[in-house]
Amino acid sequence: MSWELLLSEFSTCRLEDLPAQLVYTGRKDIKYPMSIRLAEEVLSHLQHDYLVMSINGKLIQHYATEYFDTPELQFYHDHHRGKLNREKQRIRTYEDGTSFWEVKKKNNKGQTLKTRTSESNNSSPTLVHQLRVEYDRITLFSKDYSEKLTLDMHLQFSRRGESLRKEYVVVMESKGMAHQRSPFNLLMRELRIRPSGFSKYCVGMAMLVPSLKSNNFKDLIRKTLNH
Fold first, then answer.
1. pTM
2. In Å, how far are 23, 24, 112, 151 from 177, measured between CA atoms?
3. Whole-angstrom Cα distance, residue 50 to residue 146?
4. SS3 for 151?
5. Residue 64 · residue 134 · CB < 8 Å
6. Helices 183-190 and 36-43 sit at what angle, rounded to 10 degrees?
């Protein structure tokens, strides 16, 4: 079944209808990497509880993200060893060409804090471009706007002339303040789909730079990406 056919069962919401604080307030993120077939099954159960975001009449948007790190890859290594109070810095470009410099931090309470500016220039001269990730995204919102769901697919990782494309994995992510009992997360428990950390930056770097220490990512890559 096509994504468009599945999404035709959903009511839509527009970008301008969304409460801005949902994106920027401290939130907790739960990620579920899965096969594309399983993601389609999950999506087919959500049409009564979620709205799909429509931008200029399109329900699937293309994203491109440029990740920056120190020359020593501090952000990568902090994530690999599970350090709390870690961060990532990136430029995100949307389908209409709009770009933002974003700083994404995870604190010691497991909350994600994201800030962004309209300037797409590198905000720190000490950081170096490391990785480009492109993907297509479907964005859903619970009908009371208490939870945001994203489905990222067609992942492509590029670094210094090398690239990898992963067509058969979808990363579904629940973003909210207190959403452990949301319809989506309850469905995940019913289907016995377990959450798993999935950093596009770290996974891409681990696959494209074999010399990097990546023991903590190898099982994730083997289970979800090597198909």
1. 0.89
2. 11, 11, 10, 19
3. 11
4. strand
5. yes
6. 130
Task: Give mean pLDDT in consecutive 10-residue pieces for the chain, a chain of 227 residues.
Answer: 87 83 65 92 95 93 96 93 88 90 83 78 80 96 90 96 92 79 90 89 93 83 68
**Tens-digit pLDDT profile for residues 94-153:** 988 899 999 888 887 777 788 888 876 666 778 999 999 999 999 999 998 888 899 999
Q: Please, are residues 66 and 158 in contact by the beta-carbon 8 Å criterion?
A: no
pLDDT at 24: 46
* Residue 87 CA, distance from chain mean position: 15
Nearest one of 51, 52, 41 to 188, comparing CA atoms: 41
Domains of the chain: 3-224 (2.40.320.10)
User: At which residue do the structure tokens 């309209």 appear?
Assistant: 118
The confidence score (pLDDT) of residue 220 equals 76
User: How many other β-carbons are positioned within 10 Å of the β-carbon of residue 36?
Assistant: 17
Reduce the DSSP state of residue 94 to 3 states and report it.
coil
The length of the chain, given as a count of residues: 227
